[in-house]
Amino acid sequence: MHMNMNMNRHINLIVEGSEGGTQPVEVELISSNVYRILFSPGFVEDIASGDVIRVTDEETGEFEVIEYGGNVSVKISDTSRIVEKLPEIDGILTEVSARRDGNLEHVAVWTIPVELGFKAIEESVTKACELLEEPVWWYGNVYDSQNNPINWWL
After folding, report:
1. pTM of the full predicted structure?
2. Is 129 helix (H, G, I), strand (E, B) or coil?
3. DSSP class per residue in 12-57
4. d(Cα 128, Cα 79) in Å, to the nearest integer?
5. Which CA distances in Å does 58 have to 7, 18, 27, 33, 35?
6. 14 Cβ contact list (under 8 Å, min separation 6)
């Protein structure tokens, strides 16, 4: 059977600290076990849309980043329902060319080009968080598990 190599597919990637949990992530197949991330995932850390990864263990969903795509992922969660504020938050985050890649009731994830600079990104995210009750936000692919900057953007 002929497979279309450009076909988008979902692969399950590991969710850190979840006791073996995974999240399906939409990807484009590049070559065997190598994929480009199409949308920044909400629960998988260390990657954003545009990054190229190699899956190192299909069973557990473990992977390594082999090329960064130039985007940061920003995740915002709130104890109140974030969904009602998403149109306003999207409006604010368009200042930094953000694209919302997904959301649940209390959390959402955006992809933002890093070339706009961390200061501009953080100012927009801070402004967006003012709409929420108890917001918490973080980058998905800027720090390692010890909170050290990965520095791929340098």
Report:
1. 0.91
2. helix
3. EEE-TTSSS-EEEEEEEEEETTEEEESS--SS--S--TT-EEEEEE
4. 15
5. 19, 16, 14, 9, 13
6. 20, 21, 22, 44, 60, 61, 62, 63
The pair of structure tokens assigned to 12 is: 């399950």
Q: What is the pLDDT of residue 7?
A: 62
* Spans in the chain with pLDDT lower than 70: 1-7
β-pair type (107-113, 71-77): antiparallel
The H or E element containing residue 63 is strand 62-67
Q: Which two structure tokens, joined as six digits, stand for 27?
A: 């990807």
Rounded distance between C-alpha atoms, residue 149 and residue 127, angstroms? 23
Determine the pLDDT at residue 3.
Answer: 47
Residue 138 DSSP SS3: strand
Q: What's the token pair of residue 64? A: 């390594």
Tokens 């890093």 belong to residue: 114
